[in-house]
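Appendix B. Extra example for self-study. Work through it before the problem class; the solution is given directly after the inputs so you can check yourself.
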Amino acid sequence: MTDRNTVHASFTIERRYAAAPDRVFAAWASKEAKARWFGNDPSAEILREMDFRVGGRERLNGTWRNGVLTRFEAHYFDIVPNQRIVYAYDMHLDDRHISVSLATVVFEPAGSGTRLVVTEQGVFLDGYDDAGSREQGTGWLLDRLGQSIEAA
Amino acid sequence: MLNQSLSLDLMFQALADPTRRAMVERLGLGPASVSDLARPLAMSMPAVMQHLQMLEASGLVRSEKTGRVRTCRIAPEALSLAEQWINDRRIGWEHRLDRLGDYLGEPDQERKP
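Solution. Structure tokens for the complete assembly:
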């Protein structure tokens, strides 16, 4: 039986890019552009859908090398072109519902480039509480690291 | 609580660097000597040692010296499950934003659909 628990967390990541805000925003605003950088190894991608408008939905399903099916589903709540995107999303690993988050992406001009600030506020659900999950958790972390490094 | 967020900050800092992530990934396969860690990296031994020191300060990696060999291993107990989880999500973002930077920097980006 699953031990139910919830952990809340939030964090902010800031980046600066040489590209102007409209170009950085464009990378988030179409399926084709976003597919170039957001997601897993393309060969492991099963489904990608994106309806970029307020009320629209985005879905991204894939598999990790260890066979785990991942499902990301987002809903867009606020879009101000070249300035701001707010969406909520949840994640499943196989049948486990692992998190629900609110993501806020802010695009600010910084010289001729862009200051990008991503804030995620989330609730992280169960999942890591069962026996052996620590080991899996670490392995999973490293799988992800490995995938991103290979993909980079 | 304060100490906990301090160690998380150090960890995030430690993992924000691609070289250190590569070192952590290598150690995920098992313990390794410093020269094993340095081999695939195109940098001087002092630079590798400096990265290792940051990983040790963050609590992610431990090392011990036996004779002339310093052996490094990952210290997964450094993270509570929730921290591990949150850290993973954050690392995911760091990678995506790196890739976004690469994508934005591609010279032929304008010509692609």
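Self-check: DSSP finds five helices and three strands in chain B. If your reasoning did not lead you there, revisit section 3.
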